[in-house]
Every structure is written in C-alpha cells, then in structure tokens.
Amino acid sequence: xxxxxxxxxxxxxxxxxxRSIGPDPMSCxxxxxxxxxxxxxxxxxxxxxxxKSIVDARLDPKLSQRMDAxxxxxxxxxxxxxxxEQYCRRKPMPFAEWLRATALQxxxxxxxxxxxxxxxxxxxxxxxxxxxxxxxxxxxxxxxxHADGRIQASEQQELTRRALERLxxxxxEVLLLxxxxxxxxxxxxxxxxxxxxxxxxxxCRALIRLQKxxxxxxxxx
Length: 221
What we know:
By secondary structure, the protein is mainly alpha-helical. The chain has two domains: 16-117, Orthogonal Bundle (Rna Polymerase Sigma Factor, Chain: A); 129-219, Arc Repressor Mutant, subunit A (Orthogonal Bundle), CATH 1.10.10. 59% of the residues lie in helices and 0% in strands. It has ten helices and no strands.
C-alpha cells in the first residue's frame, strides 16, 4: 500500500509557522557574555523538538526504553551554553548545525555512560514519554489508505514502526523532522547542514525505502 507522496508534504511556510525553527538566535544577542542559561534556552526553544527527533532517530529501540531523548537534548543545551562564547569567536558552522552536532555528541556520551552502568541497572525499567518514532508511525499511518480492510490501523501502525526501525538513522531523521516536527524542506536542510536540494532528495529516498521495508515485512509476516 502506498505511503504518503513526498509532494503532498511540501506545505507552504505559512502553514508551518507554528513549528518553524525561526531565525538564528545569535542574531538577537549583542553580547553572549551576559546571557543567562535560562535566556539562552528560551531563545533556542524552537529547536528542542527537532533535536529530540534527531536523537530519537539514532536511539536503538532497546536503549530508548532506558534513555530519554529529552534529557539528552537538555544536556546538549547546557553544553552549547557553556561553549557559546567559544562558538561565537570561531563560528565553525551555522548555529542550527552546531546545535545538532552538540546533541549528537551528547548522545554518544550518554550511550557510553549507559554501557558502563548497564550491569548495575539491568533490572531497572523506566517509563519515558512516547518516542518520536511511535509518533511518526502514527502520522504516516493516518494518511495511508485502508479501503481493502485487510489490515487494521493499529496493525499498520505497528508495521510502520517496525519498518522505521529498519531504516538508517539518516532516513528516520529526515522523516521525523518533516512529519513529526513539521519543518519545511528549507528548515530541515538548515538544521541538517545540507542543501535544500539534497534535503528534498533525502526525504524522497527515505519514503521509498520505508515503503520497501513495509512491503518486505508484510510479505514475511
């Protein structure tokens, strides 16, 4: 069964205004040395949900039961705040791309810490908020046709979730940004640090690969 056509997701910027990541927060600062951590996080609040999706895209399903992507993003904001003055001096990359790189670095640190402590916490189960992967499965399932009645919506959601977990992190990442965070192609490209053309191609390829994984799972279920 066909997934959402990529062209249907190319909404105008006006329809995405509530989810926009907005302008570079650094353009609002005259002196980074006097900004508080709270003010910095307030300036960057529109990046929080997209960064959570980026972390979720790279979390192994088993790890996602024990690690909260929101906590990792919070650590990334703290690290970014501590390194803000250094960033402003060097500006090695655009701000959005730098935030993403910081979040991915904090994810790597969290995974290393988890591996060191997993034997001590093997019996501890923590209930975290629903992951972005589940929300993405719901979002994609909602626009898929079920006219033939051969599969229930709940079954299709589970099938889509399993297919998403089989994708590469980069594929999940772009789909999460487009469908869960509802970023435009321009905004997604900005956050990923790639061209708009490449972001659009990556989006289309991800949809095609997801469809192939769904077909594979259907045929082998």
